[in-house]
Write a structure and sequence with these properties.
The chain is mostly helical and 280 residues long. The protein contains 14 helices and no strands.
Length: 280
């Protein structure tokens, strides 16, 4: 009987593995086709049946992307600058706030945290007009500061870091307090080094969000030399019309940093998700 149950379990797991493998392949295929198409010319792009490996490798698409009339390299530098500062600010503010909400004792802590979390239900689009008016009065419209400053604070990041700090034993902090450690030392030297998985998770989430952010730069940036990659890619697509191989080359260039970040940090990302209550 036990052997039959074991066999059924193995068969079920095998079937689930095949199903999820098929789903994964179906999700990856469009990206593989885009990568393959970026090395083709317009005539060979829509060949049927699909030729996954180009017959002739055409690197001219990438040359035109990076050295053409549309300054794609400028968009890249702008996105790297803006995203780096936003991610750095998010990590710093979220770690400090998460530690305070998790380990410090102060009046109305739970109420303040509840109100803070409730701001997540406010639709992002509702803030466009008041944010534009505020930055216009501060003379920050059409500057990168208008994009960077709001992105340095994230409610989700604070929640994630708080959940991770809650998993740290209070006895550890109490012992350091007895030894004369202050709150800053408990945070910087004791608690923060233990939160590497949560920090990496926050890094990936914020990097992905800000690298792909489209609406705020579209509203707040006007000069072409200030555009980020999503806005620049849209402008690039408009100018190149139906030159799909070149558009695919630009899309692959925009996607490369995201793939690199996830590939490098995947192990800590999975661990961070498992330890912060974001399992779904």
């Amino acid at each position: 009987m036990n052997r039959q149950v074991l066999n059924r379990s193995v068969i079920l797991k095998s079937m689930l593995t095949l199903v999820f493998a098929a789903i994964a392949i179906g999700m990856v295929l469009p990206f593989i086709w885009m990568l393959s198409g970026s090395f083709k010319n317009s005539a060979s792009l829509f060949e049927y049946p699909i030729r996954w490996i180009p017959k002739e490798w055409n690197f001219d698409n990438y040359k035109r992307v990076w050295s053409g009339s549309v300054p794609f390299s400028v968009f890249y530098i702008n996105s790297i600058k803006i995203t780096f500062l936003q991610v750095l600010g998010s990590i710093v503010t979220s770690a400090l706030a998460g530690f305070a909400f998790a380990k410090l004792r102060f009046k109305f802590k739970e109420g303040i945290f509840l109100i803070y979390i409730c701001t997540m239900i406010i639709p992002h689009q509702v803030l466009f007009v008041p944010r534009f008016i505020l930055f216009d009065q501060m003379n920050l419209v059409n500057t990168h500061a208008a994009i960077i400053l709001p992105g340095m604070f994230t409610v989700l990041g604070t929640f994630l870091m708080r959940q991770f700090f809650l998993t740290l034993p209070n006895e550890l902090l109490e012992a350091s307090k007895v030894d004369g450690a202050g709150y800053w030392r408990m945070f910087w030297q004791l608690s923060l080094p233990l939160t590497k998985p949560a920090l990496v998770t926050l890094l990936i989430l914020t990097f992905t969000w800000h690298w792909n952010e489209y609406e705020n730069p579209l509203i707040l940036l006007r000069s072409r030399d200030l555009f980020t990659i999503p806005i620049g890619l849209s402008s690039f697509s408009d100018e190149n019309g139906t030159d799909y191989p070149r558009i695919m080359a630009a899309s692959v260039s925009a996607l490369a940093p995201l793939i690199a970040i996830v590939a490098i940090c995947q192990r800590w990302f999975v661990e961070g998700i498992a330890n912060t209550g974001l399992k779904g």
